[in-house]
Structure formats: structure tokens, C-alpha cells
Design goal:
By secondary structure, the protein is an all-alpha fold. Helix content is 80%, strand content 0%. It has one domain: MFS general substrate transporter like domains (Growth Hormone, Chain: A), CATH 1.20.1250. It contains 18 helices and no strands.
């Protein structure tokens, strides 16, 4: 019962965290650029710099999560997010706006998935993998809720006032929840030993042997980084990209399908994914992104083709959110999970930080066709990196590594 309560409350804070700190930016960016006297490219360059800063801060945040507990760090992050949003709203010039935007992305590493997943692992190590799936199912509504909500609020409020409303959400809703969940958020050695003794297939050890974990982590980081680039670029520029392909106002309806598609993919995986390993799920997730982009290119400006693109891309991104938490848990175990998530988040954000600016620049100076084709090629690289992990795992199994409690192909998604 407690795990279900944790997942439900964390789902609410994740919707707010992603909706206010990430998805709202693309709606408010034109007004920000106008008020600051910047071009569209420069406002996204500022966002890229902020994402890079968040990536650099993520490893330290991960170590804090392991040391002090994810709940306490998320409570601090809620206050930091509120202050950063308020600082952005009250910034008198671009020189003050940029540091505040940097602070928003640093706060994001303390309140989004990179902190929420370790919180579930620390509070409920036996059911963490299943809980992560349920959490991403709930949080998938963030874009569906906050894209239209931000648009509606911005219809009668300035972007500064919208940010102040969002800051209030972090103080009134997120902070109390994270404070309540800050109790008992570290895995005690006795509890970990008990889980291993009673559940020999628990995720506390991980499936890769120490001899190959370095290579496995490298391949996983490359795959996640490339997926992060694609996801960041396309999500931030979803509506302008669809408009450039001739879809016009129909792009709003197409973009609205993204969130439900994320949720649908997670629900389908939860119901029918019991026979699928997390590595296979990761490969499917990575493959759906470039397939969706190529399909969009092949059918544009067809409305039906754009709908299918949004569904496939949303499903791929939805599964990506799941495996971003479960695959490291399966491969490397729960001990030190917070620090490891911090490292992965760092790589993903550093690479993904160039995506909004690079994509905007490419869309400005090159045809949308070539921009999307290049992005799709990067997606194929993510698939190859994950296939390399599968080959590494198979070789590890053949050599008879003894550190693995269960074969990788047998570690299933709990429904």
C-alpha cells in the first residue's frame, strides 16, 4: 500500500516538475525572446547552456542522493525550483535571466526522474522496477497537461506571471510531498542483505559481471545520450517543426497525441511486456524514434502520416523513460544507484544540451527534410549501441561469469 501511495504522489510531482521546468519552455520561448530582445536561436542557446549546466551538476546530485536520501534532496530541489522560476520571472535583463535559467536546470536534476527513480529504489528495493514503470505511466501526462495549460495561462498572463504560478506549485504541492517521503530513503545494509537472501533474483546485484560493466556502462551512456538528443530536439521544436513541414495549425492536434502515446506505450508494456527483457525494451524504444522521423519525412504534409509519427515517437519516448530507470538497475544493481543515475543523467544532458540550439540552427539554415534525416541517423546509432550491450551480455554469459544472479534475458518487466 505504501509503495502505491509513493508512486501516486511522485507521479503528481513529476507531472509538475516536467511540465513547469521543461515542457512549458517551448510555449513561452517566443515571448521570452521578444521581451529580452533576442532571436529565437539565442533563447534556445540559453536553454542549451542551462541543460549543459544541469548535466554537469547531475553527478554531484546523484552522490548526494545516495548519501542523504533522495527524499531530502527532492524536497530541497522543490524549493530550488520555485526560487529559480521566480528569479527567471523577475529577471530585469538577459544578464539576470541566464543565471536563473541555469538554476532551473540544476533544480531539475533534483526533482525529476534522476531523483525520483532512486527514491523508489531506496524506499522499495523489492518492487522498484515495477514502481518505476507505474511512475512513468503517470508522469507521461506532463506534456498533455502542461502544453495546453501553459498556452491557456499565457493567453491572459505574461510569461513572467506564468512562471510565478508554476513556482507556487512547487512550494504548495511538491515540497510537502517530498518532505513526507524523505523518511527512510536509504537502503540499510541489513535490509539489502535480507532482500538478497529472500529474493535471489533481486536487482540489488545487477546482471553484468564486474569485468564487463565498464564497457556496458559506456554503450548504455552512448545510447541514452543519442536518444536524449533526439528527444530534446524534437520535443522542444515539435510545433515549429510540424509547421515547417506544411501541417500548420494541424500540428497542434498532432503534438497533443504525443503525451497519450507515451502513456499508451507504458500501459501496453505493463500489461503485455512480462516476457520482454529490459534490454529488448530499450532496443525497441531506440528504434521507434528514427522510424517515426523517417515516416514523417516520407508522408509529410499528410495529416495521417503526422499522426502516426506522433504516436510512434511518443511510444518510443515513453519506453525510453522506463528503460532509463530500469535498465541501469537490471545491469548494475541497486547499490550506488543514485550516483549511477547522476552519471547517466549527466551524459544525457550534456549531449542533449546542444539539441535545442543545434536543431533550431539546422531548421533555420537547412531544409526540414535534411534536419530530420540527420536526426534519424543519430537514432540508428543508439540502436547499435544497445545491440552492443546485448552482444556483451551474451559473451559474459558464455564465459560463465558468476556475479550475475539471473540471466539478462530472464529479467522481466513486472506488471
Amino acid at each position: 500500500m505504501r509503495s502505491w501511495m509513493d508512486v501516486a504522489l511522485l507521479g503528481l510531482t513529476q507531472i509538475i516538475g516536467y511540465g513547469t521546468l521543461y515542457y512549458s519552455f517551448s510555449i513561452l520561448a517566443p515571448s521570452m525572446a521578444r521581451d529580452l530582445g533576442w532571436s529565437g536561436e539565442w533563447i534556445y542557446a540559453a536553454l542549451s547552456a542551462a541543460l549543459l549546466t544541469g548535466g554537469l551538476a547531475a553527478p554531484l546530485a546523484g552522490r548526494w542522493i545516495d548519501r542523504f536520501g533522495a527524499g531530502r534532496i527532492m524536497a530541497i530541489g522543490s524549493v530550488a525550483a520555485a526560487l529559480a522560476l521566480a528569479a527567471c520571472a523577475l529577471a530585469p535583463s538577459g544578464l539576470a535571466f541566464v543565471p536563473a535559467l541555469l538554476a532551473i536546470e540544476i533544480a531539475s536534476t533534483l526533482v525529476q526522474y534522476s531523483a525520483a527513480f532512486p527514491l523508489l529504489v531506496q524506499r522499495h528495493p523489492r518492487t522498484a522496477q515495477r514502481s518505476i514503470v507505474y511512475l512513468t505511466l503517470i508522469a507521461g501526462f506532463a506534456s498533455t497537461i502542461f502544453w495546453p495549460l501553459t498556452t491557456w495561462l499565457h493567453g491572459f498572463l505574461t510569461w513572467q506571471q506564468v512562471y510565478l504560478v508554476f513556482a507556487l506549485l512547487h512550494v504548495v504541492l511538491c515540497f510537502p510531498i517530498h518532505m513526507w517521503m524523505s523518511r527512510r530513503t536509504t537502503i540499510r545494509q541489513a535490509e539489502a542483505a535480507d532482500v538478497e537472501a529472500t529474493h535471489p533474483h533481486s536487482p540489488l546485484q545487477g546482471t553484468l559481471s564486474p569485468e564487463v560493466r565498464g564497457k556496458g556502462f559506456l554503450f548504455m551512456a552512448v545510447a541514452f545520450a543519442l536518444q536524449s538528443f533526439i528527444s530534446s530536439a524534437v520535443l522542444v521544436h515539435m510545433l515549429p517543426m510540424l509547421s515547417a513541414l506544411g501541417l500548420g495549425l494541424a500540428g497542434v492536434a498532432v503534438g497533443a497525441l504525443f503525451g497519450p502515446s507515451q502513456v499508451a506505450s507504458r500501459f501496453i508494456n505493463m500489461i503485455f511486456g512480462a516476457g520482454l527483457s529490459q534490454l529488448s525494451l530499450a532496443i525497441i524504444s531506440a528504434g521507434l524514434l528514427p522510424v517515426a522521423l523517417i515516416l514523417l519525412l516520407a508522408t509529410a504534409p499528410s495529416f495521417a502520416g503526422a499522426i502516426l509519427f506522433a504516436v510512434l515517437f511518443g511510444m518510443g519516448n515513453g519506453l525510453y523513460s522506463i528503460v532509463g530507470g530500469t535498465l541501469p538497475l537490471v545491469l548494475f544493481g541497486a547499490q550506488g544507484y543514485g550516483a549511477r543515475q547522476g552519471q547517466i543523467t549527466s551524459v544525457r544532458l550534456i549531449v542533449g544540451s546542444v539539441a535545442p540550439f543545434a536543431f533550431a540552427l539546422m531548421m533555420q539554415h537547412a531544409e526540414a527534410t535534411w534536419t530530420l534525416l540527420s536526426t534519424g541517423i543519430l537514432g540508428a546509432g543508439a540502436v547499435l549501441a544497445l545491440l552492443a550491450i546485448r552482444r556483451l551480455a551474451h559473451h559474459d554469459a558464455k564465459t560463465g561469469a558468476t556475479n550475475k544472479p539471473i540471466a539478462l534475458s530472464e529479467h522481466r518487466t513486472e506488471a
